[in-house]
Predict the structure.
Amino acid sequence: MVAPLHFRGRSVVDGEPIELWSVDGVLTDQRPAGEVETVVDGGWLLPGLVDAHNHVGIAPGLGVTIEQARGFAAADAQAGALLIREVGSPLDTHPLDGDLLGPKFIRSGKHIARPKRYLRDYGVDLENPDDLADEVRRQARDGDGWVKLVGDWIDREAGDLAPLWTKTQLADAVEVAHAEGVKITAHVFGTDALPDLLDVGVDCIEHGTGLTPDLIDVMTDKQIALVPTMIQVDNFPSIAEGADRFPTYQANMRKLHQTAGAVFAAAREAGVQIFAGTDAGGFVEHGRIVDEVDALAAVGLGNTGAIAAACWSAREWLGAGTLRVGDPADLLVLQSDPREDLAELRRPAAVVVNGEIIAD
Ligand SMILES: [Zn+2]
């Protein structure tokens, strides 16, 4: 049994006074009988941060064990990311759900790609792209509510980014995903894969650096979310660097990098729902959620919008708790209002998971 904790301060979500207790890892507004430890009286309370694009099952070189994945998850949790949307892992990370002091997960299964059209051995490579819908069904049943496609990747014959799937294949995939009750998202760097993906109604776009004003309007109309993974987009020049054999692709990646900030600002301006994701697991280290918050603030989300994109808005989008009575006691305790200074997010007075302090 975990001792009850007491929190009194202001909510970062609305600035209002808030007083909560955690009992058996769950939030209540009723003071429990017996001994209670006051964690904070006068600070700021924030639901645990959300990393909406993260891979605890991936590291350079692959072969991640569940113990390594547990370590990556711990690094993210220490940085305040208490809910992770795991968007593609060759390793089944479900054993981590038993870790009461680790982050919570919402997973897609494995990436769905085609041979030579994604990072080798990261996901499922379909020899026959017409099998996409069947594979979506399989991955839907292995995940926790999401399926992830690779929407575009370098086509070595074309020498540039190109779509992996036809519109018919995508339409069938979306239909199957939704019939299975899951959402479907797609990795997309360039522009060409986007019109079909948006038209058939995927639920989210990962990266989205190739969005154009017209496509942004479609996202707004259809309420398709965007997880721009800005700190990963920072790596586009180094990805281009290693692709000397493909000069068109190289130039495209550099251009996508140069225009990314303006593209994401335009998406924000148009009202696209944007969420924070670090893409940790490949080039990006775990534990960097606040770096992504900083990056989002700088492209027009502002401090409050950037925190929301990594916190309560993302939690509502994913159907997770937001410090309401009955929610798991997953929260950050801050000394000052992070809407005034995002650096507050880097020095929480306490990080609480399931009613236990994991960092202070
Ligand atoms: Zn990723």
Summary: The longest strand covers residues 37-47. The mean pLDDT is 96. The CA atoms of residues 234 and 257 lie 7 Å apart. The first helix runs from residue 66 to 78.
